[in-house]
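User: Hey, quick favor. My workstation is busy. Could you predict this chain's structure for me?
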Amino acid sequence: MAKGFGKGLFTGIVGTLAALAGAAYAVQKTVIEPEEKKEAFIEENRKKAARRRVAR
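Assistant: No problem, here it is.
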């Protein structure tokens, strides 16, 4: 019975860690990356606007 408990505990820990890693990856892809892309887009537009201002 102790062997079964150890295997179950190990499987549960591995499953929990896998679920946490999956959740972190999903948050990264759905929340953080789009925010970073939007910030980069805004910064690029600011640079373009500054160049246009100087060119006039």
